[in-house]
Every structure is written in structure tokens, then in C-alpha cells.
Fold this sequence. Notes:
three-stranded parallel beta sheet
Amino acid sequence: MSISKRTFIKSTAAAGLALYAKGESDAAEAQSKSRNYKRISCEEAFSTPETTAELRRLAGGVPSMKSGPIAGSFMTNLLDIGAGRIKGMDEDGVDIQLLSLVSPGVQTFEPANALSLAKLVNDRLADAVKAYPTRFAGLATVAPQAPAETVKELERCIHTLGFKGALINSHTNGEYLDNKKYWPILEALQALNVPLYIHPRDPVPGLEAPLAIPGFAVGWGYAVETGTHALHLIAGGVFDQFPKLQIVLGHLGETLPFLLDRLDNRFQWQMNTFNMKSPLKRKPSEYFRDNFVVTTSGMNYSAPVKAALEAMGPDKVLFAADYPMEVQKDAVEEMEAIKLPAETKKKIFDTNVRRVFRI
Amino acid sequence: MSISKRTFIKSTAAAGLALYAKGESDAAEAQSKSRNYKRISCEEAFSTPETTAELRRLAGGVPSMKSGPIAGSFMTNLLDIGAGRIKGMDEDGVDIQLLSLVSPGVQTFEPANALSLAKLVNDRLADAVKAYPTRFAGLATVAPQAPAETVKELERCIHTLGFKGALINSHTNGEYLDNKKYWPILEALQALNVPLYIHPRDPVPGLEAPLAIPGFAVGWGYAVETGTHALHLIAGGVFDQFPKLQIVLGHLGETLPFLLDRLDNRFQWQMNTFNMKSPLKRKPSEYFRDNFVVTTSGMNYSAPVKAALEAMGPDKVLFAADYPMEVQKDAVEEMEAIKLPAETKKKIFDTNVRRVFRI
């Protein structure tokens, strides 16, 4: 199932020309104009035949969620970063998708292989964005296993390929990004002035067994894994070292906006109880409000969206559909149905996404 | 540091008579009448010299948070279930405290010792409630390590001692209550028609290391441990077996109200992806809304309170201060400061607590 890069791009581009319905595109354009905002969704997954094959090889040929969602009916949608996806966006009312390689990215591969596949994936994505420059934007796939080379690849992705940031799927070999071996990557992201999206994956080894609750491994387990990662970054002093670094969390911040005041309160209580001086310059919530933004991926629901807006402010919440894990049309309709001021909705769908990712 | 039961009660009662300020009590009564609701707080901790000594012994004589908060300046407050506590309630504007033994209860002790200390603690608490029947109510301390004997002790606690329910501090020896060895306890609680408060403690062994984030072990670690426990109960079919069982979660439901719609969505998605038929009769959120209520302990903050109210409805949120872990006065003032309809505030402080605990 190996397809050369050229053949892959050529075939998707050809399919694009054949399938692309001009009329629908015009309709979407008209609808978008009547709105006064575009709908930009910023946690939208794709895959490639090569990374899919490698995930399957590592899983012993068995499709397994453990090695990423390489099973299931949505593989076709994942692999399509051409006309089929554009058609779906038109139908569902999404103007721009910010694309990223599906979890767990290349993070489960051997370092050299991970780096080489990351470059391949980044080239593929750049071609797709080039084919549809007003409809797609890209986030760099990175191989944290090879930090020095990843810094170079990040510079290529931002300066040459025009990507808007990078995405890392939580832990790499059980390690979070507070581990200083990864700090060159964080330093590069700050220097490049682009955000890092930290996306969920299966939890670190310790968390894995208790969180393997039938039916809740994603809804709860992913949130715990990624929220834990975010708090390790704060506790590890990452934002004292890199004060301009911007982290994007999906799923409305993996529950953390619900907890901000309590996190501050108990942080101070733990410091007092153990007669410790805080190793941090600021309160936990200050880092969370200044160094993080959250997207609505998989969480386009009224109660948590309003809580995130109240906890973080109207400039910190960005729309995402989480396609194709979620039904894109439902995500759009659910967000549109939430009772919010018109200017807040414009910020969520459009202004905030453009500002954070410089789209 | 061993004090006989009689001496303990006598000394606290004597201190009560000496310290109790009649004037302040009258003032509190007048204030409470001008309100149109009482303030009943329902996750309020106490301790006893004997359980404290046993926790310290197990910790090798070293005060350690790991074996419960046996260090720190709040021991005096924890041990006072007499006049000093009442005086504080008057000053802080709390009418009734629903008392429970501080985490981790007797759950880290050997079974026979745990059972015997649970009985002692329950007797002590019954005496305190008897001394201040309009100001205190009690939750039974239980020893899940001894399920059969615990069923008998629960019957005594409810029928003879007049307690309003029971409290268990999350896991016992790394096991959650979905383990069928504990089901006789759940069956008894349903039969007795009283709720079970599931309170946090240090996480199960697997979760412990990744969640030991400096400064976030309580704010995040406790929520993950207890939320994980709650979802194990749902996934384990506990509420199909005991459909009338009522679970109380503190800290506004340990983030779960923020996630209800996503939990349903991803639950169904996981079933579809793996071609599984759900082993449950209902959707996860239906159990959560029907078999759970949440309290505001440590979470008397606007954004999450409003989210919990929207997600669960106005009848499912109950006031708690989390004394003496939290500053009781702050908890009252923070909840009073949240902009909510007057009838909702009355429900949270009073009506909901009375209904759930039959106070």
C-alpha cells in the first residue's frame, strides 16, 4: 500500500478537479458572506498511507486504537486532504480547516523513521495547502524523539512551508515536554512565534490501566492524560523559561478551565502546608490564561463553552470540529446553537483562530 | 495521646459550655431568618485522636499528607466537634454542618482495626450531633475492607445513630466500589435509602506517580482519582444493579459535569468503533444526572457552579465549604457572590441538601 508522494498528490488533485462542485463552493461563499465571519476549525485530522502503514506494522498488523485510530470507517476521510474533504466542508459550512496529522502522529516510531516520516507528512500537507490555499492551513508534524533535528524541521515548516504552528500528541515514550531534553523544541516555537497544539493520545504507562474504563478511554482518559501534561508544563517552570510560548489545548482545555480557581487555591494550600516557597513566578491560573488557548473540539456544548468563556475570557476560545472523529456538521450546528453574543461567536469561529494561528 | 471516649466527649462538651457565645448564636439565628434559607454545608471534616494516632503510626511516626492530612495547623480544627466549631459556624454564617471523618478515613487500616475504629468514630460523631442536634448532622464512617460487618454497622448508623448517609474516600487498597466484593455495601445503602458520599483521597497506585505534580496533587490529582472512580461505577453497571443508589461527589463533581455531553458522545463512538453493544441500559449522562448529585466543596466559584447547574439542573448542586481544608467564611461569601436566581441559591444552600440527606 505504498504510494509515491507524486502519485498521491496527483491522484488527490485529479479527484479534486473531478469531484469539486463549483455550485456548492459558491453557495458556501455566499453563506459565509451573509454571516460576517468565516468558520475556521482548528483541530482537524488527516493521515497518510505511510504513517498508517507504519502504525499498523507496529501493532503487529492488527488495526488497534492503541496505535492510533487506524481501524474504522473514517480512514477514507482521514486520508482525503483534497476535493472530498473540501466538498464536506462546503456541505457542513466550514470555511477553513487547520490540518494536523492524526494522533499519535509519528511519536511511536523509532527516531530516524519518525523524523523522516514527519518530513514526508509535512511535504504532503504543504502540497494540500498549496492546492487549496483559501481552505486549508497546516500544523507541523514533529518528532520529539529527535529534538535537534526537529528544531530544523520546525524552521522549515514555518519559514518554507508556511505552516501556522506545530502539534504534538501528548507524551513521547512516556515523557512530557517539561522534560528538559525537549526544551529546544519549545525554545524554537517561541522564537518562531507560533503556537504548539498539545493533542491527546493514549495515556502514559502509569495512567493507562486505571483510565482504561470501557467506553470512557477517550472522553475521560484523553482529558486526564492531556490535562496532566499541561499541568506538568506549568509546574515544571516551562512558562517562566519561555514566557511567550503559546499552548493550544483541544476539548475546551481538557477540563482545566472548570478548575482554574481551585487549582490556584490548592496550589497555595499545598505550598503553605509543606512550608514551601512556590518555585513559580506566577499563579497557575495566570499561566493558563496567558500561555494557553482552548478549542471546542468535541466539546461544542453550551455548559462547558460558557464556563470556558467565563474562566478564560472571550479571546481564548477557538472553534474546532475534530473532524473526522466527530460529525463536522453537528459540531458547526451545536456551536451555532449556543446562546452567545454575536461578537463572541465571531471571535470563536474566526477572529481568535486568525489571531492565534496568524491565518 | 490516647484519650478515653468519655473524657474526650466530656472535655469537648465542657469547652463548649465555656466558649459558646450566646449572643453570637442569636445573631446567627437572626441573620439566617432574614435570608429565607439556612446554609447547610455537607462536606465538613473532623477527626479523632485515635484515628489520627493510627495514621501517624502507619506513616512511621512522620506526619505525612500521604496518609491523610495529619500534619499542619488545622488539626485543632479537625479535632473540634464541639463549641469551637459551632462558634466558627456562627461567625462564618453556616447553620448546619454535615460532618464526616477526614480522608482517608479508616480505609488504610487492617480490616479488624478499621472496623473497630469506624465504630468508635461513629459513636463520637453521634455524641457530637446529640450535643448540637440543630447544628450538626453526620455521615457514617465505613470500613469497606470488611463488607459484611460494614453492612451491619451501616444499619446501626442509620437506624440507631440517626446518620444521614455514609462517606467512603475513593479507593480501598487500590480497588473501586465497582468491584463486586463491595456490592453488599451498595445494596445496603440503597435499601437504607441513604446516599453515599465518595470523597477524594490519594490516587490508586497506577495514577499516583503521574499525578504527583508539585502543587497540583490535590486540585488535579484528587479530581482525577475520584472522577475515575465515578466512571468505573457507571461502566461497571452499578446503577443498573442498584437504580436508586445516590452518589454524592464533592468539588462540583470532580469535573464530570463539564464533560457530560462529550462522555455520551465518545461512549457511543467507542461502542460503534469496536462494534460493541453497550453493556449499559442507559447513556452515561443519564446515570450521572439521576444517580449523582454534586457539592460545591472547594469550588464555590462562578464559572464551574454555573456549568454544573446548566449540565445537571438546579436540584443537583449542594453547598459545601470543605472545612477546615478551606476557609469556611470565604466559601460562604464566594457562593453568595455568584450571580444566580434567589430560588437557585436557596436550593443550593438549603432545599437540595435537605432533600438528598433528609435533614
